[in-house]
Structure to design on (429 residues):
């Protein structure tokens, strides 16, 4: 598949109640690399194998949750094109100047019908993954520190108007539907998993009355062994775990969900499959979500906290 | 030092150390009553009103606890640490959980089952 247009999730800015506690969690327990701090006091981190300067930005605030989630696009012409397309679709967009986030170019920001702020950008300084580009070694000391996921993989957001969100992502931004959960009476789509790539999801949404909520940010590991090791590391550090280790029926991902010190849920996971845009989407009934093992395949049950607790 | 915590609605009682939050001690002792969520002061489901007793608290989300709430000891149980015997009323979670059928939330019936009738 040719990779053009929107390439991948690029960065997420999270609100944390206590900055240093947040940094200790993402840097020392999760094992991300701290790459900078700005005048506003925000802290920038990246996963060891990511090449761009940052993927998670922590901002101390009086509430938890997500400020914005951003996608990197192919180049500046693509950014201009998509900005025009969004406006033609009827969405207001805003240009955030280059440098407002460290080592990051101009961003096009817009609010989607679920109440979330989404950004597109084309430039972020490539600081590399600590390996040479010519004849590289397979790993580095940074890949062995903490849980050490390879990348920020996707996020799941909770908010209203999921049908409109799907239309926007699919018709304007070039995403496609990979999986979905129908509502309790078989009506509409209560949850959708969208991809702009060959990944089982780059972003997902669940219908929810309150706008702009974060369900989780997800970080990719390379093996089930590493997911179990992540469980050990979380427990050693007394990080509260929501679910897992287990496997979802939905996306087939093998996963653990836990909460950061401010109550923002995060996921460490591996697996899934590699969909193409011509695949027929997989559909789960509302029953299938629980008894069908959509959420938790081995246990075939709904987990109340997973369905209701968000920031 | 251990203190006694009483959930007024049910009369449920449990012990809570000074380094332990009211919420974590409840969960650890196998008691129920206060909804358990993120345990980090962010999600708001564990909101209680402390009706008696001394306590200390850590930073918690303003989205769920207003200045007014704070002044009236309406706080998030996962951020409250007892300094004496404490009694409380449960405010959080339940209402939010049963009031909507939108999205993936379990319906009312499932809910009552999950909450074990508390
Ligand atoms: S459990 Fe989330 S705020 Fe207390
Ligand atoms: Fe996920």
């Amino acid at each position: 598949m040719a990779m053009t247009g929107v390439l991948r999730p690029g960065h997420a800015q999270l609100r944390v109640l206590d900055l240093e506690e947040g940094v200790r969690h993402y840097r020392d327990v999760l094992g991300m690399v701290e790459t900078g701090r700005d005048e506003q006091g925000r802290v920038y981190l990246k996963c060891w194998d990511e090449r761009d300067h940052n993927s998670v930005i922590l901002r101390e605030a009086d509430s938890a949750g997500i400020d914005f989630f951003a996608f990197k696009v192919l180049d500046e012409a693509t950014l201009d094109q998509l900005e025009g397309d969004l406006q033609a679709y009827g969405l207001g967009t805003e240009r955030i100047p280059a440098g407002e986030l460290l080592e990051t170019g101009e961003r096009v920001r817009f609010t989607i019908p679920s109440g979330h702020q989404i950004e597109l950008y084309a430039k972020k300084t490539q600081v590399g993954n600590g390996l040479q580009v010519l004849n590289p070694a397979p790993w580095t000391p940074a890949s062995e520190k903490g849980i050490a996921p390879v990348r920020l993989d996707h996020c799941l957001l909770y908010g209203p108007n999921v049908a409109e969100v799907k239309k926007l992502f699919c018709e304007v931004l070039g995403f496609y539907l990979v999986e979905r959960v129908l509502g309790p009476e078989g009506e509409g789509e209560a949850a959708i998993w969208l991809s702009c790539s060959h990944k089982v999801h780059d972003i997902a949404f669940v219908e929810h009355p309150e706008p702009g909520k974060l369900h989780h940010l997800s970080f990719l590991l390379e093996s089930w062994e590493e997911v179990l090791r992540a469980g050990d590391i979380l427990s050693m550090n007394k990080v509260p775990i929501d679910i897992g280790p287990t496997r979802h029926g939905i996306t087939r991902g093998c996963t653990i969900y836990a909460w950061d010190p401010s109550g923002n849920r995060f996921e460490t996971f591996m697996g899934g499959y590699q969909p193409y845009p011509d695949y027929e989407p997989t559909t789960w009934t509302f029953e299938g979500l629980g008894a069908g093992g959509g959420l938790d395949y081995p246990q075939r049950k709904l987990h109340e906290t997973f369905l209701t607790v968000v920031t | 030092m251990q203190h006694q915590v009483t959930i007024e609605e049910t009369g449920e009682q449990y012990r809570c150390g000074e380094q332990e939050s009211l919420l974590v001690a409840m969960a650890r002792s196998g008691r129920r009553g206060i909804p358990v969520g993120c345990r980090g002061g962010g999600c708001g489901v564990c909101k209680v009103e402390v009706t008696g007793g001394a306590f200390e608290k850590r930073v918690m989300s303003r989205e769920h606890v207003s200045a007014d709430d704070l002044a009236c000891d309406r706080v998030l149980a996962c951020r409250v640490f007892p300094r004496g015997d404490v009694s409380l009323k449960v405010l959080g979670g339940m209402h939010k959980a049963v009031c909507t059928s939108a999205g993936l939330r379990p319906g009312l019936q499932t809910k009552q089952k999950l909450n074990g009738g508390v």
